[in-house]
Amino acid sequence: MPIDPSVALGASLPIQEFSWSSSDVQLYNLGLGAGARPTDAGELRYLRDGDPQVLPTFATVAATFHDTEPPKVSFPGVEIDLAKVVHGSQEVKVHAPIPASGKGRTTTRIAEVWDKGKAAVIVQESVTEDLDGNPLWTARSSIFARGEGGFGGERGPSEAVALPDREPDAEFDVPTLPQQALLYRLCGDRNPLHSDPEFAKAAGFPAPILHGLCTYGTVCKSITDHLLDSDATRVAGFRAKFAGVVFPGETLRVRVWKSGNQLLATVTVTDRDLAPALADVVLTIA
User: Per-residue pLDDT tens for 172-184?
Assistant: First the structure.
């Protein structure tokens, strides 16, 4: 049985100790499209030698940045074919601005396992500290495993962000590069779904798709640039649900509403009649 919730729920994953450098941060930022305006002072903050500014979304790749093997979905009580898995949601909260280089230790547990009938949802929670025990960030992510439901578990909650009943405060388009998935995969996610056309077809897609976390980071950067003066230190947290696929080279349309200390957003794909890409997007301002 691929999923045994009695074993999986609450299980701890191996502790990860890792380090990152300012070059890693620069490469991550390039993977999100940084440098598209190569003479813009705000844009160049992301690419300074030695001290590039760090988006909170870098936390999603920091521990695995130097991995060169495809990831495996193999946890206590969980064994799932990688081709069946897509990212469901992601949330990161930073406890202080992430330094441009450092060392960290992450502890992770399986917090929730939900049975959606034809699919399963597995939620992980992780806490990252520096090696002196100071908190760096807290993350929560879910994966959606097609064909792995029906094990008799609960369906889980259905949560949605309520948008203001008015026109957005900002709306802008964000292009992606045709080679963006090939660049972003150098940040540690070598899933062939994003680079191998035959693997993508076997998984049910006409071509390799952009990493969900690339879309996630790209949108965080674009909102930061348009509404927070390109100042990543003003971002205390960022969360979103992955509502649809994005193909490299497509253009994202981001619509943003201001709500207290939060910026709420929707993200669609202009190339495919505004097909959804991200939903329930919330950027929390520090």
Answer: 999 999 999 999 9
